[in-house]
Amino acid sequence: MARTDVVVTGIGATTPLGGDVASTWDAMLNGRSGVSALTQEWAEQLPVRIAAPLAVDPAGLLDRVKLRRLDRSEAIAIIAAQQAWADSGLGDSGLDPERLGVSVGSGIGGALTLLAQDDILEASGPRRVSPHTIPMLMPNGPAAWVGLELGAQAGVHSVASACATGAEAIALGLDMIRAGRADVVVAGGTEAVIHALPIAGFSSMRAMSTRNDEPERASRPWDKGRDGFVLGEGAGILVLERAEHAAARGARVYARLAGAGLTSDGYDIVQPHPEGAGAVRAIARAIADADVAKSDITHVNAHATSTPVGDIAEIKALHRALGDHPVLTATKSMSGHLLGAAGALESIATILAIRDSVVPPTINLDEPDDGLDLEVAANKARHMDIPAALNNSFGFGGHNVALVFTRA
Amino acid sequence: MTRDEITAGLAEILEEVAGVNPDDVAEGKSFTDDLDVDSLSMVEVVVAAEEKFGVKIPDNEVQNLKTVGDAVSYIAAQS
């Protein structure tokens, strides 16, 4: 039996680079940074005082009363999902809600709510803690809210695999459609944890850049001067659709989600395997699943977070699994690291790279690391033919997810 | 505090917490049936009312407060 084809018919995002996909993509192609100095009082004592906040705040985009019942990660998931849904044209298509699923995850969950309500608990006692606290901080909250918003009844799921979450959520959506459980799955990731505790935690791991005096130059994947990632916030959502279903309604198709590969390192809770062994297997599985020739994969949107060890481990993995022909980019150099939303935002960038035949730049790549022996669209977008492209995402816990998109 | 003043105070809370139009708030209105205040929002209304009017509204009393008028009477008797 022929494999069920799955295509992308809608995309939505709110990111440090723009309040929607168009503005985000435009900023990426122009090599803009979304990183800025944290000027809040709570940041004064932190070793890291830079981040990539949303370009457009959710306040004003959703009803005021609704917003006070939503964690920021939930609010922006809804905003991105509304955009993707409108973009797909499915709203008035008569889609059976029982054939509509949701797969949206977050790396950390409703941490801002947890912290804010703990402040209230400490200051005013338990009776003052909001009755909306639990639905605001539960990790399935963003998926549940997106499902409610769209009336999805085929299943609402929320995977969690740290910084691989967005990509894994998309892979689960692919599985749902292939398995026949849904015709359409709204899939992606969301994250909003720019606050003192998450920053202090990552910072204590020595995982974050402390280039506080040069925010826009702090996220610099593969550059010799890189010293850690820059925390970003945002949400990215894709509408995945059974190809025949999309064709029957004459939908505009961005790209085909051709395959996914998921593996686990079994090596360390936070350190990537030094040779990227788990990543090699994930990439190989994704290529095999997609049934495309390696030579057709001419572009890779890499995970590359700007950490000293991870960036080069991924290069080794790409060499082994894919070869030396693809042109790489690390869009985190501009967006910062959106953790659980990263794989979703970068999937959108990968899809648009295929559509527009252009690789967005990796900015701040002034002095390439000696271990970088693959080609990168350094500091400037590169126009080229991209029949197929790969998007990598790796997460603390040893999660490796590779997605292959091809031209529709 | 007069009943009208308490009603006005409750209307402010209901607008903030549940987005209820203050013009819709009157003593005869039911919180759930007329004003669409769900159970979680009702908890918020009660806590905000305790703070605003300096009263205690125990959980076992809340179920008796069906209408705005019920709440006004309870608050008036306590304050």
TrEMBL record, chain A:
SMART domains according to UniProt = PKS_KS (SM00825)
Q: Name one Pfam family in it.
A: Ketoacyl-synt_C
| Enzyme Commission numbers on file | 2.3.1.179
Q: Which GO terms describe its molecular function?
A: 3-oxoacyl-[acyl-carrier-protein] synthase activity
Question: Domain Ketosynthase family 3 (KS3) spans what residues?
Answer: 3-407
Q: What's the domain of life for this entry?
A: Bacteria
Name the enzyme group at the top EC level.
transferase
Q: Tell me the route in metabolism or biology where this protein functions.
A: Lipid metabolism; fatty acid biosynthesis
Its annotated function is as follows:
Involved in the type II fatty acid elongation cycle. Catalyzes the elongation of a wide range of acyl-ACP by the addition of two carbons from malonyl-ACP to an acyl acceptor. Can efficiently catalyze the conversion of palmitoleoyl-ACP (cis-hexadec-9-enoyl-ACP) to cis-vaccenoyl-ACP (cis-octadec-11-enoyl-ACP), an essential step in the thermal regulation of fatty acid composition.
What the record says about family reads: Belongs to the thiolase-like superfamily. Beta-ketoacyl-ACP synthases family.
> Know the name of this protein?
3-oxoacyl-[acyl-carrier-protein] synthase 2
Q: Which gene encodes it?
A: fabF
Automatic annotation (TrEMBL), chain B:
The O-(pantetheine 4'-phosphoryl)serine modification is found at S39
On modification after translation, the UniProt record reads:
4'-phosphopantetheine is transferred from CoA to a specific serine of apo-ACP by AcpS. This modification is essential for activity because fatty acids are bound in thioester linkage to the sulfhydryl of the prosthetic group.
The answer, when asked if Zinc is one of the entry's keywords, is no
Query: In which pathway does this enzyme or protein participate?
Result: Lipid metabolism; fatty acid biosynthesis
Primary location: cytoplasm
Which GO terms fall under biological process for this protein? lipid A biosynthetic process
Which InterPro entries does this entry report, sorted A to Z? Answer: ACP (IPR003231), ACP-like_sf (IPR036736), PP-bd_ACP (IPR009081)
* This protein's UniProt keywords: Cytoplasm, Fatty acid biosynthesis, Fatty acid metabolism, Lipid biosynthesis, Lipid metabolism, Phosphopantetheine, Phosphoprotein
Q: Name one GO molecular function term.
A: acyl carrier activity
Of the GO CC terms on this record, one is: cytosol
Query: Per its UniProt record, what Pfam families does this chain match?
Result: PP-binding (PF00550)
**What are the Carrier domain coordinates in residue numbering?**
4-79
Tree of life domain: Bacteria
The protein's location, in the record's own words, is:
Cytoplasm
Known role = Carrier of the growing fatty acid chain in fatty acid biosynthesis.
Family designation: Belongs to the acyl carrier protein (ACP) family.
Protein name per UniProt? Acyl carrier protein
Origin organism is: Micromonospora sicca
